[in-house]
Amino acid sequence: MTIAKNKYTIFIMKRAFVTGITGQDGFYLSKLLLEKGYEVSGTIRRSSTFNTTRIDSLISDYKNTEQFKLYYSDLLDSSSINSLIQKIKPHEVYNLAAQSHVAVSFKNPHFSVLTSTSGSLSLLDAVKNLDSNIKYYQASSSEMFGGVGSESLNETSLFIPKSPYAAGKLFAHNITRIYRESYDMFCSNGILFNHESPLRGETFVTRKISRAVGRIYHKIQNKLTLGNLDAVRDWGFAGDYVNAMWMILQHDKPDDWVIATGEAYSVKDFAREAFKVVDLDWEDYVLSDKKYERPNEVHHLLGDPTKAKNELKWKPETSFKDLVKMMVESDLLLAEQEKVLLDKKLIKPTWDNS
Ligand code: NAP
Ligand code: F7E
Q1: CATH match of 15-197+237-259 with 3.40.50.300
Q2: Is 174 exposed, middle or buried (0-12, 13-18, 19+ CB in 10 A)?
Q3: How many Å lie between the centroid of ligand 2 and the Cα of residue 143?
């Protein structure tokens, strides 16, 4: 952003405020914004152990600058959220914070739902009270559709949430639209389908598979036990999807956007492709156990990103095959390091080695 004043030009660094900065998308989005010259401020939660592993490289790269700032907060602490918005005065707010594991949301429903409902509302209110021109991005999810049929889903498709996670996200999605319409605010929802990376949490199915392939290849794991192998998802690369988040806030008007690849694969397909990277046959290693199934499964999610392609000019750059390869190659390196430590008896396996 530049402002011309007399014969001088003053450069003003755009300020972004990111909740959920310690998560997978938090890393990729912060990296993108920092490279674009933004000043990025994010919230981290106090925990008894360090929880900044994913963003440690950014903390290190930007330690001698004022460009990357972290603050203790929690979306459920509305007073701290409000104070931070007042202090930072961001131009753009990206609300990525959530308890994002669908299966866990059945076990911790109150926390999961409250973060997305009360938490998102507090943030929106703080933004509205400071300056209704601030641009606000809400991390909406394809889980809101519920995956009832097998047709491809777009911005006009029906939402039939099937989990506490999805119900909470649907509230956040609606309240974002309501603030946009009621207060003329620039509030947009990105309805993102599953997106993965080497930084994906290890209990999500793609990373669980790539982690296991690395360990099985290095002979420190024997089998991989999953749940529903027939579930179908539209999987993209997180690095491509955070670009869409940024583009959504640069568009000339606020709106709702489906971000997806338009291609669907089953859990079985993902496992087959991942084992293929190391020339192994997935059927020799993968088991299925009901303990990993959900009380209410979302069977099939396929997105139709036509609107984002036409109007935002966004498109995914990474193919399914390249995504799987990227994740497996990264986890082969981690498994190699684990093997050295195991051989030296410096660690014990904490993973399921059944
Ligand atoms: P993630 O890796 O699980 O990261 C979630 C982030 O939210 C973490 O930084 C976490 O902090 C933080 N958080 C959780 N509860 C919080 C609370 N009460 N207050 C403040 N921060 C809190 O998720 P992700 O994959 O990066 O996804 C980013 C967002 O997009 C999430 O809202 C997710 O629901 C949504 N989404 C993700 C996908 C996907 O496929 N990845 C698809 C659609 C939508 P800790 O590190 O301290 O736990
Ligand atoms: O499950 C099946 C499981 O946990 C994918 C989140 O980022 O994307 C993510 O939610 C599918 C499901 O992701 C295992 O039943 C089989 O059908 O990797 P997942 P998710 O539930 O799709 C959406 C868009 C979000 O918004 C969420 O935040 O795989 N599955 N076996 C398994 N899933 C897991 N986790 N573990 C298994 O062993």
Answers
A1: no
A2: middle
A3: 10
